Task: inverse folding
Protein backbone atom coordinates (compact mmCIF):
# COMPACT_ATOMS: atom_id res chain seq x y z
CA UNK A 1 0.00 0.00 0.00
CA UNK A 2 1.34 3.43 -0.91
CA UNK A 3 0.95 6.17 1.61
CA UNK A 4 0.36 9.74 0.53
CA UNK A 5 2.81 12.35 1.77
CA UNK A 6 1.90 13.81 5.15
CA UNK A 7 0.23 17.16 4.80
CA UNK A 8 1.66 20.10 6.68
CA UNK A 9 -0.71 21.38 9.38
CA UNK A 10 0.00 24.93 8.19
CA UNK A 11 -0.56 24.33 4.46
CA UNK A 12 -2.71 26.90 2.71
CA UNK A 13 -5.06 26.24 -0.18
CA UNK A 14 -7.21 28.61 -2.28
CA UNK A 15 -9.41 27.93 -5.34
CA UNK A 16 -10.61 30.59 -7.77
CA UNK A 17 -12.21 30.91 -11.20
CA UNK A 18 -11.43 33.52 -13.87
CA UNK A 19 -13.25 34.49 -17.06
CA UNK A 20 -12.48 34.48 -20.76
CA UNK A 21 -12.38 37.84 -22.55
CA UNK A 22 -12.87 38.63 -26.23
CA UNK A 23 -11.28 41.82 -27.55
CA UNK A 24 -13.19 44.39 -29.58
CA UNK A 25 -10.01 46.44 -30.12
CA UNK A 26 -7.39 43.76 -30.68
CA UNK A 27 -3.95 43.42 -29.15
CA UNK A 28 -1.57 42.20 -31.84
CA UNK A 29 2.12 43.08 -31.52
CA UNK A 30 4.66 43.42 -28.73
CA UNK A 31 7.26 46.11 -28.23
CA UNK A 32 8.91 43.97 -25.52
CA UNK A 33 8.45 40.20 -25.79
CA UNK A 34 9.92 39.34 -22.37
CA UNK A 35 7.84 41.76 -20.32
CA UNK A 36 4.90 41.31 -22.73
CA UNK A 37 4.50 45.01 -23.47
CA UNK A 38 2.13 45.62 -26.39
CA UNK A 39 2.51 47.80 -29.46
CA UNK A 40 -1.02 49.15 -29.00
CA UNK A 41 -3.70 49.48 -26.35
CA UNK A 42 -6.68 47.11 -26.55
CA UNK A 43 -10.17 46.69 -25.14
CA UNK A 44 -12.27 43.62 -24.42
CA UNK A 45 -15.52 42.31 -23.02
CA UNK A 46 -15.28 39.88 -20.11
CA UNK A 47 -17.57 36.89 -20.70
CA UNK A 48 -19.61 35.20 -17.99
CA UNK A 49 -17.83 32.61 -15.86
CA UNK A 50 -21.14 30.80 -15.48
CA UNK A 51 -20.52 29.62 -19.05
CA UNK A 52 -16.75 29.59 -19.58
CA UNK A 53 -13.96 29.73 -17.02
CA UNK A 54 -10.62 28.47 -15.81
CA UNK A 55 -10.52 27.08 -12.27
CA UNK A 56 -7.28 26.99 -10.34
CA UNK A 57 -6.33 25.67 -6.92
CA UNK A 58 -3.03 26.69 -5.36
CA UNK A 59 -1.63 24.73 -2.47
CA UNK A 60 1.17 26.42 -0.55
CA UNK A 61 3.13 24.32 1.95
CA UNK A 62 6.60 24.13 3.50
CA UNK A 63 6.54 20.41 2.63
CA UNK A 64 6.18 21.00 -1.13
CA UNK A 65 9.80 20.54 -2.18
CA UNK A 66 9.43 21.92 -5.73
CA UNK A 67 6.86 23.97 -7.59
CA UNK A 68 4.56 21.66 -9.58
CA UNK A 69 1.63 22.18 -11.90
CA UNK A 70 -1.16 20.02 -13.36
CA UNK A 71 -3.16 21.36 -16.29
CA UNK A 72 -6.46 19.54 -16.98
CA UNK A 73 -5.13 16.63 -14.87
CA UNK A 74 -1.75 16.20 -16.61
CA UNK A 75 1.49 17.34 -15.01
CA UNK A 76 3.45 19.96 -16.95
CA UNK A 77 7.00 21.08 -16.24
CA UNK A 78 7.16 24.37 -14.32
CA UNK A 79 10.83 25.25 -15.16
CA UNK A 80 10.16 24.65 -18.89
CA UNK A 81 7.47 27.35 -18.89
CA UNK A 82 9.26 30.69 -18.66
CA UNK A 83 6.05 32.73 -18.43
CA UNK A 84 4.78 30.63 -15.54
CA UNK A 85 8.16 30.95 -13.80
CA UNK A 86 7.99 34.75 -14.27
CA UNK A 87 4.50 34.95 -12.72
CA UNK A 88 5.53 32.84 -9.72
CA UNK A 89 8.75 34.85 -9.23
CA UNK A 90 6.91 38.19 -9.38
CA UNK A 91 4.36 37.07 -6.76
CA UNK A 92 7.06 35.61 -4.48
CA UNK A 93 9.19 38.77 -4.72
CA UNK A 94 6.18 40.82 -3.71
CA UNK A 95 5.49 38.56 -0.73
CA UNK A 96 9.16 38.62 0.28
CA UNK A 97 9.13 42.44 0.35
CA UNK A 98 6.09 42.35 2.66
CA UNK A 99 7.85 39.82 4.94
CA UNK A 100 11.01 41.99 5.08
CA UNK A 101 8.94 45.02 6.02
CA UNK A 102 7.08 43.07 8.72
CA UNK A 103 9.11 40.20 10.27
CA UNK A 104 6.00 38.94 12.08
CA UNK A 105 4.51 37.72 8.82
CA UNK A 106 4.83 34.00 8.05
CA UNK A 107 7.60 33.27 5.49
CA UNK A 108 5.27 32.01 2.78
CA UNK A 109 7.63 33.31 0.12
CA UNK A 110 9.93 30.36 0.90
CA UNK A 111 7.24 27.65 0.61
CA UNK A 112 6.64 25.40 -2.37
CA UNK A 113 3.65 25.94 -4.66
CA UNK A 114 1.43 23.27 -6.25
CA UNK A 115 -0.99 24.45 -8.95
CA UNK A 116 -3.96 22.54 -10.30
CA UNK A 117 -5.80 24.20 -13.17
CA UNK A 118 -8.74 23.19 -15.38
CA UNK A 119 -10.89 24.78 -18.04
CA UNK A 120 -14.61 24.02 -18.16
CA UNK A 121 -14.50 24.23 -21.96
CA UNK A 122 -12.84 21.53 -24.06
CA UNK A 123 -9.43 22.45 -25.52
CA UNK A 124 -10.76 20.87 -28.73
CA UNK A 125 -13.26 23.74 -28.94
CA UNK A 126 -10.30 25.83 -30.10
CA UNK A 127 -10.96 28.57 -27.56
CA UNK A 128 -7.85 30.27 -26.24
CA UNK A 129 -7.45 29.44 -22.58
CA UNK A 130 -4.28 31.40 -21.82
CA UNK A 131 -6.19 34.58 -20.87
CA UNK A 132 -8.49 32.94 -18.31
CA UNK A 133 -5.74 30.52 -17.24
CA UNK A 134 -3.08 33.10 -16.38
CA UNK A 135 -5.63 35.53 -14.91
CA UNK A 136 -6.80 32.72 -12.64
CA UNK A 137 -3.23 31.77 -11.73
CA UNK A 138 -2.14 35.24 -10.59
CA UNK A 139 -5.47 36.03 -8.93
CA UNK A 140 -5.22 32.79 -6.90
CA UNK A 141 -1.54 33.46 -6.12
CA UNK A 142 -2.44 36.91 -4.76
CA UNK A 143 -5.12 35.31 -2.56
CA UNK A 144 -2.95 32.51 -1.20
CA UNK A 145 0.04 34.81 -0.55
CA UNK A 146 -2.21 37.62 0.77
CA UNK A 147 -0.78 40.23 -1.58
CA UNK A 148 -2.61 43.54 -1.16
CA UNK A 149 -2.96 44.39 -4.86
CA UNK A 150 -5.40 46.59 -6.75
CA UNK A 151 -6.95 45.22 -9.97
CA UNK A 152 -4.59 47.21 -12.24
CA UNK A 153 -1.53 46.07 -10.21
CA UNK A 154 -2.65 42.47 -10.41
CA UNK A 155 -3.24 42.83 -14.15
CA UNK A 156 0.50 43.59 -14.58
CA UNK A 157 1.34 40.18 -13.07
CA UNK A 158 -1.22 38.47 -15.34
CA UNK A 159 0.34 40.27 -18.32
CA UNK A 160 3.61 38.42 -17.64
CA UNK A 161 1.77 35.17 -18.36
CA UNK A 162 -0.09 36.24 -21.50
CA UNK A 163 -0.90 39.72 -22.76
CA UNK A 164 -4.64 39.18 -23.07
CA UNK A 165 -4.75 37.69 -19.53
CA UNK A 166 -4.35 41.14 -17.99
CA UNK A 167 -7.86 42.00 -19.23
CA UNK A 168 -9.43 38.91 -17.56
CA UNK A 169 -8.59 40.29 -14.10
CA UNK A 170 -11.68 42.50 -14.22
CA UNK A 171 -15.31 42.10 -15.21
CA UNK A 172 -17.38 44.07 -17.69
CA UNK A 173 -15.53 46.17 -20.25
CA UNK A 174 -11.78 46.30 -19.78
CA UNK A 175 -9.03 48.29 -21.49
CA UNK A 176 -5.33 47.48 -21.44
CA UNK A 177 -3.37 50.69 -21.58
CA UNK A 178 -0.18 49.95 -23.55
CA UNK A 179 1.88 52.33 -21.38
CA UNK A 180 5.18 53.98 -22.26
CA UNK A 181 7.57 52.90 -19.46
CA UNK A 182 10.34 50.46 -20.44
CA UNK A 183 9.79 48.41 -17.23
CA UNK A 184 6.06 47.97 -17.93
CA UNK A 185 4.88 49.64 -14.72
CA UNK A 186 2.21 51.57 -16.63
CA UNK A 187 1.18 48.76 -18.98
CA UNK A 188 -1.91 47.56 -17.16
CA UNK A 189 -5.64 47.03 -17.43
CA UNK A 190 -8.43 49.23 -16.10
CA UNK A 191 -12.17 48.77 -16.02
CA UNK A 192 -14.00 50.93 -18.55
CA UNK A 193 -17.42 49.89 -17.20
CA UNK A 194 -18.62 47.09 -14.89
CA UNK A 195 -20.75 44.16 -16.14
CA UNK A 196 -23.86 45.81 -14.66
CA UNK A 197 -23.44 48.76 -17.03
CA UNK A 198 -24.70 46.95 -20.14
CA UNK A 199 -26.22 43.61 -19.10
CA UNK A 200 -28.26 43.37 -22.35
CA UNK A 201 -25.08 42.71 -24.32
CA UNK A 202 -24.75 39.02 -25.09
CA UNK A 203 -22.40 36.88 -27.16
CA UNK A 204 -22.54 33.75 -29.29
CA UNK A 205 -19.38 31.78 -29.91
CA UNK A 206 -19.57 29.83 -33.15
CA UNK A 207 -16.98 27.08 -32.79
CA UNK A 208 -15.77 26.53 -36.34
CA UNK A 209 -14.51 23.18 -37.57
CA UNK A 210 -10.87 23.44 -38.53
CA UNK A 211 -8.47 20.56 -38.97
CA UNK A 212 -5.20 22.44 -39.20
CA UNK A 213 -3.20 23.90 -36.35
CA UNK A 214 -2.83 27.65 -36.85
CA UNK A 215 0.12 29.93 -36.06
CA UNK A 216 0.26 30.70 -32.32
CA UNK A 217 -0.55 34.29 -31.30
CA UNK A 218 2.89 34.74 -29.76
CA UNK A 219 4.79 33.73 -32.91
CA UNK A 220 2.29 35.34 -35.30
CA UNK A 221 2.37 38.77 -33.72
CA UNK A 222 6.19 38.88 -33.62
CA UNK A 223 6.31 38.21 -37.37
CA UNK A 224 3.68 40.92 -37.94
CA UNK A 225 5.69 43.50 -36.00
CA UNK A 226 8.84 42.56 -37.92
CA UNK A 227 7.31 42.62 -41.42
CA UNK A 228 4.00 44.52 -41.72
CA UNK A 229 4.03 48.19 -42.73
CA UNK A 230 0.27 48.24 -42.26
CA UNK A 231 0.68 47.20 -38.61
CA UNK A 232 2.91 50.23 -37.95
CA UNK A 233 0.12 52.45 -39.32
CA UNK A 234 -2.45 50.68 -37.15
CA UNK A 235 -0.40 51.14 -33.95
CA UNK A 236 0.18 54.87 -34.46
CA UNK A 237 -2.78 56.16 -36.41
CA UNK A 238 -5.77 53.86 -35.94
CA UNK A 239 -5.88 52.35 -32.46
CA UNK A 240 -5.52 55.52 -30.32
CA UNK A 241 -8.60 57.11 -31.91
CA UNK A 242 -10.49 53.78 -31.99
CA UNK A 243 -9.91 53.24 -28.25
CA UNK A 244 -11.50 56.63 -27.52
CA UNK A 245 -14.45 55.94 -29.84
CA UNK A 246 -14.98 52.47 -28.33
CA UNK A 247 -14.95 53.82 -24.76
CA UNK A 248 -17.57 56.40 -25.77
CA UNK A 249 -19.74 53.76 -27.50
CA UNK A 250 -19.62 51.64 -24.33
CA UNK A 251 -20.33 54.59 -22.02
CA UNK A 252 -23.37 55.45 -24.20
CA UNK A 253 -24.41 51.78 -24.63
CA UNK A 254 -24.52 52.65 -28.33
CA UNK A 255 -24.70 49.22 -29.97
CA UNK A 256 -24.51 50.51 -33.56
CA UNK A 257 -21.22 52.31 -32.83
CA UNK A 258 -19.88 49.45 -30.73
CA UNK A 259 -20.70 46.94 -33.48
CA UNK A 260 -19.23 48.95 -36.30
CA UNK A 261 -15.96 49.57 -34.43
CA UNK A 262 -15.77 45.91 -33.38
CA UNK A 263 -16.17 44.61 -36.93
CA UNK A 264 -13.77 47.20 -38.36
CA UNK A 265 -11.15 46.31 -35.79
CA UNK A 266 -11.48 42.58 -36.41
CA UNK A 267 -11.16 43.24 -40.16
CA UNK A 268 -8.03 45.32 -39.61
CA UNK A 269 -6.43 42.75 -37.34
CA UNK A 270 -6.89 40.10 -40.04
CA UNK A 271 -5.66 42.58 -42.66
CA UNK A 272 -2.36 43.01 -40.81
CA UNK A 273 -2.12 39.23 -40.55
CA UNK A 274 -2.44 39.07 -44.34
CA UNK A 275 0.13 41.88 -44.63
CA UNK A 276 2.54 39.83 -42.51
CA UNK A 277 5.29 38.18 -44.55
CA UNK A 278 4.79 35.26 -45.00
CA UNK A 279 1.05 35.90 -44.54
CA UNK A 280 -1.03 34.44 -41.72
CA UNK A 281 -4.62 33.30 -42.36
CA UNK A 282 -6.76 32.70 -39.32
CA UNK A 283 -10.22 32.94 -40.88
CA UNK A 284 -11.41 30.08 -43.08
CA UNK A 285 -14.33 29.78 -45.52
CA UNK A 286 -16.84 29.26 -42.69
CA UNK A 287 -15.54 32.38 -40.91
CA UNK A 288 -15.97 34.34 -44.13
CA UNK A 289 -19.51 33.01 -44.59
CA UNK A 290 -20.31 34.31 -41.07
CA UNK A 291 -18.97 37.77 -42.03
CA UNK A 292 -21.15 37.81 -45.17
CA UNK A 293 -24.24 36.70 -43.28
CA UNK A 294 -23.84 39.30 -40.49
CA UNK A 295 -23.18 42.00 -43.09
CA UNK A 296 -26.31 41.02 -45.03
CA UNK A 297 -28.61 41.02 -42.02
CA UNK A 298 -27.23 44.33 -40.78
CA UNK A 299 -27.95 45.81 -44.21
CA UNK A 300 -31.43 44.40 -44.36
CA UNK A 301 -32.63 45.74 -41.02
CA UNK A 302 -33.00 49.43 -40.13
CA UNK A 303 -30.50 49.12 -37.26
CA UNK A 304 -27.32 47.07 -36.77
CA UNK A 305 -28.30 43.68 -35.36
CA UNK A 306 -24.98 41.98 -34.60
CA UNK A 307 -21.19 42.38 -34.64
CA UNK A 308 -18.70 39.68 -35.56
CA UNK A 309 -15.12 39.42 -34.33
CA UNK A 310 -12.40 36.79 -34.90
CA UNK A 311 -9.23 36.12 -32.92
CA UNK A 312 -6.21 34.01 -33.90
CA UNK A 313 -8.38 31.19 -35.26
CA UNK A 314 -11.52 30.61 -37.37
CA UNK A 315 -14.10 30.79 -34.51
CA UNK A 316 -16.58 33.66 -34.73
CA UNK A 317 -17.73 35.62 -31.70
CA UNK A 318 -20.99 37.47 -32.31
CA UNK A 319 -21.96 40.32 -29.99
CA UNK A 320 -25.61 41.36 -30.03
CA UNK A 321 -28.23 42.83 -27.70
CA UNK A 322 -30.44 40.26 -25.94
CA UNK A 323 -33.51 41.25 -28.02
CA UNK A 324 -31.87 40.09 -31.25
CA UNK A 325 -30.66 36.75 -29.97
CA UNK A 326 -33.64 34.54 -30.81
CA UNK A 327 -33.61 35.61 -34.46
CA UNK A 328 -29.83 35.35 -34.70
CA UNK A 329 -29.87 31.83 -33.27
CA UNK A 330 -32.51 30.83 -35.81
CA UNK A 331 -30.36 32.23 -38.61
CA UNK A 332 -27.05 30.73 -37.52
CA UNK A 333 -28.52 27.29 -36.89
CA UNK A 334 -30.31 27.41 -40.26
CA UNK A 335 -27.25 28.40 -42.32
CA UNK A 336 -24.74 26.43 -40.23
CA UNK A 337 -26.49 23.13 -39.39
CA UNK A 338 -25.26 20.91 -36.55
CA UNK A 339 -22.87 18.05 -37.38
CA UNK A 340 -24.96 15.02 -38.32
CA UNK A 341 -23.64 12.97 -35.38
CA UNK A 342 -24.21 15.67 -32.72
CA UNK A 343 -27.49 16.09 -30.84
CA UNK A 344 -29.19 19.49 -30.90
CA UNK A 345 -28.54 19.77 -27.17
CA UNK A 346 -24.80 19.25 -27.62
CA UNK A 347 -24.76 21.69 -30.55
CA UNK A 348 -26.62 24.45 -28.71
CA UNK A 349 -28.12 23.99 -25.26
CA UNK A 350 -29.93 27.35 -24.90
CA UNK A 351 -28.70 28.24 -21.39
CA UNK A 352 -30.56 31.57 -21.41
CA UNK A 353 -33.83 30.12 -22.79
CA UNK A 354 -33.95 32.37 -25.82
CA UNK A 355 -35.68 29.83 -28.07
CA UNK A 356 -39.44 30.22 -27.59
CA UNK A 357 -41.72 27.23 -27.26
CA UNK A 358 -42.66 25.89 -30.68
CA UNK A 359 -39.63 27.33 -32.53
CA UNK A 360 -37.41 24.61 -33.99
CA UNK A 361 -33.84 25.76 -34.49
CA UNK A 362 -32.37 24.87 -37.85
CA UNK A 363 -35.81 24.63 -39.41
CA UNK A 364 -37.88 27.73 -38.62
CA UNK A 365 -36.64 30.81 -40.41
CA UNK A 366 -37.29 34.27 -38.87
CA UNK A 367 -39.83 36.16 -41.01
CA UNK A 368 -37.87 39.46 -40.89
CA UNK A 369 -34.98 37.86 -42.71
CA UNK A 370 -36.79 36.12 -45.58
CA UNK A 371 -34.81 38.24 -48.06
CA UNK A 372 -31.50 36.60 -47.06
CA UNK A 373 -32.93 33.10 -47.24
CA UNK A 374 -32.38 32.66 -50.95
CA UNK A 375 -29.17 34.65 -51.26
CA UNK A 376 -27.16 32.45 -48.89
CA UNK A 377 -26.06 28.88 -49.25
CA UNK A 378 -26.58 26.56 -46.29
CA UNK A 379 -23.15 25.29 -45.14
CA UNK A 380 -22.24 21.62 -44.88
CA UNK A 381 -23.51 20.20 -41.55
CA UNK A 382 -20.75 20.52 -38.96
CA UNK A 383 -18.96 23.52 -40.53
CA UNK A 384 -19.87 25.03 -37.13
CA UNK A 385 -19.30 22.37 -34.46
CA UNK A 386 -21.02 24.01 -31.55
CA UNK A 387 -22.67 27.28 -30.52
CA UNK A 388 -22.01 28.68 -27.04
CA UNK A 389 -24.28 31.43 -25.75
CA UNK A 390 -22.93 33.73 -23.08
CA UNK A 391 -23.03 37.33 -21.87
CA UNK A 392 -21.01 40.03 -20.13
CA UNK A 393 -19.69 38.82 -16.79
CA UNK A 394 -17.75 39.66 -13.64
CA UNK A 395 -14.06 39.33 -12.73
CA UNK A 396 -12.32 36.41 -10.94
CA UNK A 397 -14.08 34.77 -8.01
CA UNK A 398 -12.83 32.99 -4.89
CA UNK A 399 -14.58 29.64 -4.33
CA UNK A 400 -15.01 28.65 -0.70
CA UNK A 401 -16.42 25.13 -1.03
CA UNK A 402 -13.76 22.39 -0.60
CA UNK A 403 -15.53 20.42 -3.37
CA UNK A 404 -14.52 23.16 -5.84
CA UNK A 405 -10.83 22.44 -5.25
CA UNK A 406 -8.83 20.91 -8.12
CA UNK A 407 -6.24 19.54 -5.63
CA UNK A 408 -6.71 17.27 -2.62
CA UNK A 409 -5.56 17.99 0.93
CA UNK A 410 -2.01 16.85 0.03
CA UNK A 411 -1.88 19.40 -2.79
CA UNK A 412 -2.07 16.71 -5.48
CA UNK A 413 -4.66 16.43 -8.28
CA UNK A 414 -7.98 14.91 -7.32
CA UNK A 415 -8.08 13.27 -10.74
CA UNK A 416 -5.12 12.49 -12.99
CA UNK A 417 -5.21 12.06 -16.76
C1 LIG B 1 -5.93 37.84 -31.26
O1 LIG B 1 -2.57 37.21 -25.33
O2 LIG B 1 -2.62 35.04 -26.61
O3 LIG B 1 -6.64 37.22 -29.07
O4 LIG B 1 0.68 37.83 -25.11
O5 LIG B 1 1.78 36.26 -26.68
O6 LIG B 1 0.32 35.37 -24.85
P1 LIG B 1 0.59 36.52 -25.82
O7 LIG B 1 -0.66 36.58 -26.83
P2 LIG B 1 -2.20 36.47 -26.55
O8 LIG B 1 -2.77 37.23 -27.84
C2 LIG B 1 -4.13 37.49 -28.00
C3 LIG B 1 -4.37 38.00 -29.36
C4 LIG B 1 -5.83 38.14 -29.77
C5 LIG B 1 -6.32 39.56 -29.57
C6 LIG B 1 -6.67 40.00 -28.17
O9 LIG B 1 -7.07 39.18 -27.33
O10 LIG B 1 -6.57 41.22 -27.93
Result:
Amino acid sequence: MTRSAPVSPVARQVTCTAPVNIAVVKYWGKRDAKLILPSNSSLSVTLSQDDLHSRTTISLAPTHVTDRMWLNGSECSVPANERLVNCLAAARRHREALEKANPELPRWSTWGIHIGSENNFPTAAGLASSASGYACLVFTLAQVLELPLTGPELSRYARLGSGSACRSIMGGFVAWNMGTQADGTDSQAYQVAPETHWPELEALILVVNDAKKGTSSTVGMQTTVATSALAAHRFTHVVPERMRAMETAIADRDFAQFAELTMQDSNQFHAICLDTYPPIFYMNDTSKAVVHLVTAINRLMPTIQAAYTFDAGPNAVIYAPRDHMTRLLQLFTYFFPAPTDVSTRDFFNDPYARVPEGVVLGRDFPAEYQAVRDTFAVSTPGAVKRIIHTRVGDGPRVLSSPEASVLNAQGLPKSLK
User: Anything to note?
Assistant: Residues 23, 26-28, 36, 42, 128, 130, 162-164, 217-218, 311-312 surround DP6 (CB under 6 Å). Residues 163 and 173 are 16 Å apart (CA to CA). The chain has two domains: 12-194, 201-391.
